[in-house]
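Weekly sync notes, structure subgroup
Attendees: PM, AL, DS (notes)

Item 1: joint prediction request from the bench team. They want all two components modeled as one assembly rather than separately. Inputs as received:
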Amino acid sequence: EVQVLESGGGLVQPGGSLRLSCASSGFTFTTSAMSWVRQAPGKGLEWVSTVPVSGGVTYYADSVKGRFTISRDNSKNTLYLQINSLRAEDTAVYYCAKGGPWGGYFDSWGQGTLVTVSS
Amino acid sequence: DIQMTQSPSTLSASVGDRVTITCRASQSINSWLAWYQHKPGKAPKLLIYKASTLESGVPSTFSGAGSGTEFTLTISGLQPDDFATYYCQHYLSYPFTFGQGTKLEIK
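Output from the run, pasted for the record:
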């Protein structure tokens, strides 16, 4: 069974940093693109970032570019999101999502981890 | 960036009804479109990819259609478990974008 489990969320002050993790199992992590998607309170889903299989080129939404860094450790089947210079508008549930085998859709998702940015 | 617009934003229906949700892209995305179901506090669930391909394990009461800029998700014979929020998402190129969501409510 495919499982992705996020951790690392919490309450952080504006300007602070967090590192989110996503532990994966039940599929071949090394051959799957991985992404982060977030949902702010009362809002819809927002794609945040994707790291392809190779982990070389990475992609970001304009709203997080320069502040967030996605990475993967294929030896640990784990995805990361380093989030810096946090703003109130970054408050959201952050979901880890596995890329589908036929393109940029997301075929398995975690339950999410909540990041709250507040003083 | 490609904008995705869903309609309606809210849809009220009864168990057994057939409903259709529309998703429009601001430019052609061929068939690079996915649909998801999302319930509060749960992980989103993939329903359909490549506009009309049903994900394994998803009931055949769900169907997708369209290409280019206009797409539909149809649920035939609504079940109580189907009441949720539905999102479309394009994956033609980065940045990927989602529609704003359609909340399907019980009438």
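Discussion: Chain B touches chain A at residues 1, 32, 34, 36, 38, 41-46, 49-50, 55, 85, 87, 89, 91, 94-101 (CB under 8 Å).
Action: AL to compare against the crosslinking data before next sync.
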